Amino acid sequence: MKKLASALLLSAAISTPAFAADQGFYAAADLGSVSFSSASLQGTSFASPSSITVGGGYRFGQYSGVVLSAEVGYSMISDSKANFTNATVTAKSSAFAGYVVGTYAINNQYDVFGKLGFANTSTDLSGTGAGAGLTGSSSKTNLAFGLGGNYNLDKQVAIRAQYENLGKNDVTATGAGIAPATIGFGVSVVSVGVVYNF
């Protein structure tokens, strides 16, 4: 009976991936969909773009069951356009974020995390057609937060899904024969990515 129990435990240990290490460096890459809240010009909204985020962090260790990490990431956001009858206004955006991350393991395969920190978002506006000459540029640092979860394939590789709110960046559009208009680009991202533990 003891031999059978030992064999079952060994089999379970081999077949069940171990969760990520409590300490050490990791890298991450995420594909996301960006939402711009309140981003409209003369009643026309900017389309939701996609994003690619690359980054990484360091896990300091486990404290009261929660693994604490520091993480940074740079997001490249695709162009977002607002189309008018004779003009198109394009917003080019990017973001850099730094977080403190707390991760809690549900079991060997699944864990959840929350992150809190700061994000700097930059947006540049340009116009074509009747909007040629329209410009605008702004960069702002805001409080940022996120929530998500990991599925650990093994000790080194995990798949993660997350939501991040990067705050709001107000951009004033000028030129092209319009009165100056302030556009509030409230940036949030839903993404899926891969984490590699070194």
Identify the notable features of this structure and list them briefly:
198 residues; single chain; 1 helix; 7% helix; mainly beta; eight-stranded antiparallel beta barrel; two-stranded antiparallel ribbon
What does the model show?
- This protein is mainly beta.
- It has one helix and ten strands, in the order αββββββββββ.
- The chain has one helix at residues 2-15, and strands at 24-37, 40-41, 44-45, 50-63, 66-83, 87-105, 110-129, 135-152, 157-175, 178-197.
- Strands 1-4-5-6-7-8-9-10 form an eight-stranded antiparallel beta barrel. It has a two-stranded antiparallel ribbon with strand order 2-3.
- The longest helix is centred in the first third of the chain and has 14 residues, at 2-15.
- The chain is elongated and about 60 Å long.
- The model is unreliable at 4-17 (pLDDT under 50).
Architecture blueprint of SSEs:
Layout: H1 2-15, E1 24-37, E2 40-41, E3 44-45, E4 50-63, E5 66-83, E6 87-105, E7 110-129, E8 135-152, E9 157-175, E10 178-197
Antiparallel strand pairs: 1-4, 1-10, 2-3, 4-5, 5-6, 6-7, 7-8, 8-9, 9-10
Within the largest sheet, what's the order of strands? 1-4-5-6-7-8-9-10
N- and C-termini, Cα separation:
39 Å
Instruction: Find the count of extended strands (DSSP E, 2+ residues).
Output: 10
Dominant shape: elongated
What's the gyration radius in Å? 22 Å
Class per helix and strand makeup: mainly beta
